[in-house]
Amino acid sequence: PKDSYSKGLSPPRYQGVKVETDCDLLWNYKLNLTTDPKFESVATEVCKSTIAEIKECNEEERGRGYLVSCLVDHRGNISEYQCNQYITKMTSIIFSDYRLICGFMDKCKEDINTLRCGSINIGHKDVHSQGEVIACLERALVREAEQQDHVRPIKEECQRAILRVAELSSDDFHLDRHLYFSCRDDRERFCQNTQAGEGKVYKCLFNHKFEEAMSEKCRDALTTRQKLISQDYRVSYSLAKACKLDLRKQRCSLDTNLPRAREARLSYLLLCLEAAVHRGRPVSGECQGEMLDYRRMLMEDFSLSPEIVLHCRTEIEAHCSGLHRKGRTLHCLMRIGRGDRSTTVDSVCQSALQTLIQSADPGADYRIDRALNEACESVIQTACKHIRNGDPMILSCLMEHLYTEKMVEDCEHRLLELQYFISRDWKLDPILYKKCQGDAARLCHTHGWNETSELMPPGAVFSCLYRHAYRTEEQGRRLSRDCKVEVQRILHQRALDVKLDPELQKRCMTDLGKWCSEKTDTGQELECLQDHLEDLVSACREVVGNLTELESEVRGCYYEVETSINDIQIDALLIRACEPVTQAHCHDVADNQIDTGDLMECLVQNKHQKEMNEKCAVGVTHFQLIQMKDFRFSYKFKMACKEDVLRLCPNIKKKVDVVICLSTTVRNDTLQEAKEQRVSLKCRKQLRVEELEMSEDIRLEPELYDPCKSDISRLCPNVAFGNAQMIECLKEQKKQLSQRCHQRIFRLQEVEMTDPELDYQLMRVCKQMIKRFCTEADARNVLQCLKQNKNSELMDPKCKQMITKRQITQNTDYRLNPVLRKACRADIPKFCQPILNKASEDSELEGQVIACLKLKYADQRLSPDCEDQIREVYFRSLHQTNSIFSSTMTLLQISRLCAEEAAAQEQTGQVEECLKVNLLKIKQDGCKKEVLNMLKESKADIFVDPVLHTACALDLKHHCAAITPGRGRQMSCLMEALQDKRVRLQPECKKRLQDRIDMWSYAAKVAPAEGFSDLAVQVMTSPSKNYILLMIALSVCVLFLVGLLCGRITKGRALGHIVKDSFLLFLLFLLLSQMPGL
């Protein structure tokens, strides 16, 4: 093959020698025969009417042999039978010697001598070797086109004569003497059954040119003839005949601005007729078949394109030597042209490659590219068998299966090499051109298929199209629906490899080397650029940002009915990985023809379904993380909230900041009960979706993730991201978090408690229970609804456990209980202001405010609404030991003193009862104070003491049924019944009441009253309260009388103090007399 290549570039030269006498006599006889007046007179008689019809022949000078040669020249137009037979016989005589061809000797004599083509090779005795002279001239002609410096240029009139001779011999291969004798054996081997005439033998030999059994001599001769066809399509009889009418109809030979030689070029013919086909103009099937054959010929052998040989010589010799056959050299150049970091290709060579690809137009029919056809045959048979053979959608189908298990490596390489060049000229994708040619002319001012413009080069047209793809109606000048679908398809395919996006590769070459040199796997380069978006140079950042924005816009589903190819969203690798979950949960949106974002939204919502595999989950999360860099990267969010962002959050780009800004606005408007929300309804709906998505993965909330990174690695090293697992882990380890992370987690919990729908774990675990119990509940009251139904027999255990967790969390800080916070908004600053003064805004109060409110509840000083909420806190905490005791010391004492009770399934009040009984054994002050407070709180109402309430249930029904619960009224009723000897209480109730009296007495000793309110509570709960009250009243009276007596003899000022003190004691007495039960 290497020798063959060398011959193709530098064919051997033939040295001229003296013609042997015998051969010279034969040739002179032939020359005299054609110039003999008798011979010419026979032609005049036989072809009389034909000569009259053919003007050129009628005007030829007689007696020089030109008449017969002219008739041979126009033999295709001869209709007379006898004339046709005569001229056919004469043709074989004339073509045996170049000197016999009309005017050839006169036009090329000087070039024959200059090029030293001579008449015959040394030692060659073949009487037909005069064909070698023409062959020598033909080789010189094609070699001249492949050389930059024309050392011995052939005269123009001789060039035309050479091509004319080749054209005249195009009908019958016998007429090309050199090729005939070079390929006699090969013709018998490959084309034995092919009849001569109409160029059939030529075509058969062309088709077998790269067969192993083909002789090198014949292959060289065939290559020379193919090169001549490249210079003048008329050298191919079949092509010129099949396309004659189409060329005239499509006006492919009437451009006065171009030289005739240019119009005769095969590439010009192909481009002109291909333009007509792409525009939908009629071109005969016979002509299209011939065009297909010669387009395939150009792709098979690079040496047929002079520009490739001329401008890519260095690259071929350096990288592609020995790959001459079956289009492998061309694909080798394409691979280098793709811009491999290790090799580069000259810009002129790159341009030559692009021109050749346009001429051959393999995008219209993959079979034109033989290397691709052979490499991808197995893939086409399996993955694309439903598509008609030769359909342009075959290439699109192959791109759809790139990097799948059906793709083979060789096909993958050939496909990407070709797509690299197709992506640089929008016209080379026939489907795109067909659907978008009207839009391109209207919006991008493009010209014809085979015309270019400096203002709008081919590579810029697609950029223009996708800029118009997603304009709103207000912006105007939008793409048609069909064109938009094709733009989506192209973007989808370009996302597979950054080299398929010319603008991206051009602007980001430096950044690819700097940040992504090791990211060479499929799709990794684009992901790497997106990950380093802030670090890129401005030009690269702009194009990556625009691509990512557009990527989000077409991230939906495109479905081509004719081919049944699912072309879902721009990232083909992701969508293939997500096919199982798409089919199981998102098939409704996947069946939409165009869906801007619904499919990705569905994948996010179902990210943790059993059908979701690791690749899909990682890909979906990557898209979510990229979207956080700029709100424009989320198409649905951008379209819904663009105006709101410009109006309410100007100069903010990061999505998370935009979401926070808009959410804060919505929240403030809601809290202030504004008449009209500043954020539009459609934006509020989409904002809710974004907030829900962000709550699923801590990495989607940078303000939370960044301060908690160290805590994550320290406390949750084995917890996976996603499904809100990491956030839940941090919540459970809240007391061990760093200060910044603790503050962020607390702020998150505050938002979630205000809006439970943002609590991803709660909504996930309790999804079915919400449907069962809370379908009619407002989204912000979901947790409240779940709490109300927590003890239902139908409640799912996992959901019940999650509700309990949230209740425990709510008891740690009043701000985490929105209902309580609202009900007690007046009581908290009134009774618990010192606690608020000590705490900072983001610090957690660890249950201090709720404990304060509980004590005030025991003192019966809370407002009715607040009292109801504290009562509910008591009631909900009866089954939750952890929600009652916040002190670590208390929990330790429980494990030491009350382990059995704590482990019991039914522990309603048993742990508290155990601590009360063992109060004397508790040494730690913090734990003791908590139990004492619990004793004090139990006086507020009997239901706060579940053990006592259970023991005295019957007595309450019999003796205190008329007493309204609350404010200690039922407790006072039972105490009076205990002291009344006429009332017989249940033994267990009586025993428990007596125990409580003893406990309260001990508590009074251990924790004396701190003020009048505590003193009043202790007096009223004392068994001797009547005696105490009587003594207080007598003391007041005595003091008052003494004051009166002493007032007569003391100064008025002293008397005034005494009266004042007496009056205060009297008021105390009145206050005590108004206490319940007195």
UniProtKB/TrEMBL annotation:
Principal localisation: Golgi
Organism domain of life: Eukaryota
Membrane topology term: Single-pass type I membrane protein
Pfam families per the UniProt record, alphabetical: Cys_rich_FGFR
Signal peptide as annotated in the record: none
Membrane-crossing residue ranges in chain numbering: 1027-1046, 1058-1075
Alphabetical list of PROSITE patterns matching this protein: GLG1_C_RICH
Cellular component aspect of the GO annotation: Golgi membrane
Entry protein name: Golgi apparatus protein 1
Highest classification ranks of the organism: Eukaryota, Metazoa, Chordata, Craniata, Vertebrata
